[in-house]
Each structure stands twice: as C-alpha cells, then as structure tokens.
Amino acid sequence: MTYTILGRCQRTGRVGIGIATFSITVGRYCWGVKSNVGVTVSQAFANERNNALALRLLTQGFTARAVLQQLMDNDPYAEYRQIGVIDRTGMAVAHTGPKTRGWSGHVVGENYVAFGNGLMGPEIADAIAKGFLAEPESDLEHRLLMGIEAGRDAGGQGTRERPKTERSAALRVYSTDAFADIDLRVDLHDKAVDELRRVWSYFKPYEPYYRHRERNPRGAMGQEEFMKTLQAAE
C-alpha cells in the first residue's frame, strides 16, 4: 500500500521522489536518486537491489526504457513489483506487476511517473499526476509534495470500506551535487503526509542558511541568531 511520484524538473534538471505508505520507515527505500543521472524506485514487494542496479545503468548512459527491461529480466519476481524509472533526459517508464496487491497501476508522462499499489482505485494515480503537474514553474520538492497530497486527498490507500492512513512518507531531491538538496522523512506518524509538509515548510527557510554555513563558515551567524531573524520576519 504505497503511492509515489517520481519527477524531473524540465527547467533545472533536478530529480526527486515523493512517497507515502501505510508501512513504516518508507524513506529507507527511496534512495534511488542521483544528480545528473535520474531517479528510480521499486515498491509493492520492494527489491532494493533494483535501485542500485538502475542507478548504475543510468550512470552508464542507458535509457530509462533499457534500464526497466534489465531490471525485469534480472528479477524472477518482477510480477510482484512496481518499478518506475526516469533518466536524465526526462524519459519516464514504469512497470506494475500483475501480482501486486489491491488496485495497482501507473500514469506516465514526460518527466514523471505517478504510481501506487493497494490504492482505492485508478483515480488515485490520476490525482497524483495532476497534483504534480499543477504548478510546473514551482520548485520540484513542492510539486512532489503536491503530488502525494493529491493522492491522499483523492482517497489514498486501502478500500472504501477499509481506508488506510499514511504512516510514513519521504521527500528526496537532487540537483547538481553528489548529496541531496532535500532529504526529509517521516518514519511513523498517524498523518505522515501532513507531517512531511510541515517538516518541509519548517526546513525551507533553513536551506539557504545551511548552504551559507558550508560555503562561508567564518562569516556564518550562529543558529540561534538565525532563528531570531526568522522570528522577527514573522
């Protein structure tokens, strides 16, 4: 029971993932993102080795379509997986195996894959895609959050008789550095998507401050002083 948006920003080339699920600690599965390379994830009956293999192949210049085929050819349980891949050009592909549970499926377009398993129905994947596409000029992390929020608002996981809340969620975005611009996760919460938005909103003004500390440690203000500037701005 997981729903996900993989995305690439056409304007900046940034790549990232937004994910939410009934399971706990989903952030540990969503590390398949690399600057100037692409983004991938394996879910449902997740195979973490797929992420590592996909990133290696994408780094070597394989297209998203070729990578997906390799992942399926090398996995005897591919019929139990959902896999999404976006390469550095924005080519996006996905696979939903017939043995994933509940309603499972994907919506794919240039620069995005919206997909999930154990969902209320196909309208959830459609909503995730529409949420991601709603503000194409916004920062990628905001668009990814809008995607999973739209999935939640459309009904999310489970069935109409037995809906399932999101207990964990994660957001990860890379641009040009070897490390992430955004790497946030909620491992256990009764409203994990709401909490992820709250954490991101709180972190957003800190992002340039932490960058400045890295680049100019001698001239950087202390964190408590910086917090006072935020309070004054409010």
Automatic annotation (TrEMBL):
Pfam families: DUF1028 (PF06267). Gene3D superfamilies: Glutamine Phosphoribosylpyrophosphate, subunit 1, domain 1. It comes from the Bacteria. InterPro entries: DUF1028 (IPR010430), Ntn_hydrolases_N (IPR029055). This is Pilus assembly protein. It comes from Reyranella soli.
